[in-house]
């Protein structure tokens, strides 16, 4: 039995992060480990997961890699069975895995297979993770906290992103339903609506594209990976013990509304 450290908000807890092999998921996993959690990093990329686990353990954290394909129910079920067999419980989970779909295009240009691909990973995958995470939390009887990583595109439409937007709107709905279904059992479920973040894709798009993205954010910049890691950590910890069923915007003000004109800032 791990001795809890009262100075660390996740000390002694078992946490799962899907889509943890790179980018946002890897940053969240590292933040949870620094907060004292024993983190299960899960994705399809075993080699990248091993590197992330090595980095966390070199920094003094506790982590283990497990393979999962969130679009495959048997794979998700097997992941949670592994966690049960190894740790006996699950205290927190961050459902970050996403993907599928296609590059932006008007709705009628989307093939049905492309739409199905987006929904399979980014919506159905979240449902499957929720289903089996909640089952394990219920079995332990000690409650838990789940965070679904979403997007501002799940709160307002974005032209050309039919599958992505539909999936993220669905994630918000699943989050609220799960929160209501399991509040009495002490399981909290929340989501985070991310604004523009400097991921590998945005970094590869070049400075001009980055400047256009930053200009559309009221704070005048896009977010870094470090900017977003603390939000899921807070929602997983007891520091947010009275928060459930909410979609927290971490977006530089994008969802606040339309900025006023001529406010003295260069865009």
Protein model, in words:
This protein is an alpha/beta fold. It has one domain (14-251): 3-Layer(aba) Sandwich (Rossmann fold), CATH 3.40.50. The chain is built from eight helices and seven strands, in the order E-H-E-H-E-H-E-H-E-H-E-H-H-H-E. It has a seven-stranded parallel sheet with strand order 3-2-1-4-5-6-7, with helices on both faces. The longest helix has 29 residues, at 112-140. Helix content is 43%, strand content 15%.
Provide key terms for this protein.
267 residues, alpha/beta, Rossmann fold, 7-stranded parallel beta sheet, 8 helices, 7 strands, 15% strand
- Fill in the CATH topology: Rossmann fold
Radius of gyration: 18 Å
Which strands sit side by side, in order, in the main sheet?
Answer: 3-2-1-4-5-6-7
Q: Which architecture per CATH?
A: 3-Layer(aba) Sandwich
Number of helices: 8
The general outline is globular
What is the end-to-end distance? 54 Å
Beta strand %: 15-25%
Ordered list of secondary-structure elements with their pairings:
Blueprint: E1 14-18, H1 23-34, E2 38-43, H2 46-58, E3 62-67, H3 73-87, E4 92-95, H4 112-140, E5 144-151, H5 162-182, E6 187-194, H6 200-204, H7 207-215, H8 225-236, E7 247-250
Parallel strand pairs: 1-2, 1-4, 2-3, 4-5, 5-6, 6-7
């Amino acid at each position: 039995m791990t001795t809890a450290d009262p100075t660390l908000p996740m000390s002694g807890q078992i946490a799962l992060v899907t889509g943890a092999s790179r980018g946002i998921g890897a940053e969240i996993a590292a933040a949870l480990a620094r907060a004292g959690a024993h983190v299960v990093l899960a994705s399809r990329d075993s080699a990248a997961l091993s590197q992330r686990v090595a980095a966390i353990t070199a920094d003094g954290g506790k982590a283990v890699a497990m393979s999962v394909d969130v679009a495959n129910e048997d794979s998700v079920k097997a992941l949670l069975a592994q966690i049960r067999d190894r740790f006996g419980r699950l205290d927190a989970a961050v459902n970050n895995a996403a993907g599928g779909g296609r590059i932006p295009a008007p709705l009628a240009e989307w093939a049905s297979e492309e739409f199905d691909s987006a929904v399979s990973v980014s919506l159905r995958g979240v449902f499957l993770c929720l289903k089996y995470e909640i089952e394990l939390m219920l079995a332990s009887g000690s409650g838990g906290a789940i965070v679904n990583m979403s997007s501002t595109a799940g709160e307002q439409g974005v032209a050309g992103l039919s599958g992505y937007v539909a999936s993220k709107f669905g994630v918000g709905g699943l989050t609220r339903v799960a929160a209501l279904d399991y509040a009495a059992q002490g399981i909290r479920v929340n989501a985070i609506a991310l604004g523009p973040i400097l991921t590998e894709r945005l970094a590869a798009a070049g400075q001009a594209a980055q400047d256009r993205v930053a200009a559309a954010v009221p704070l005048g910049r896009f977010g870094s990976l470090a900017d977003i890691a603390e939000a899921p950590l807070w929602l997983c910890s007891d520091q947010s013990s009275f928060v459930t069923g909410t979609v927290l915007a971490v977006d530089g003000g994008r969802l606040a509304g339309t900025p006023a004109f001529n406010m003295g800032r260069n865009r």
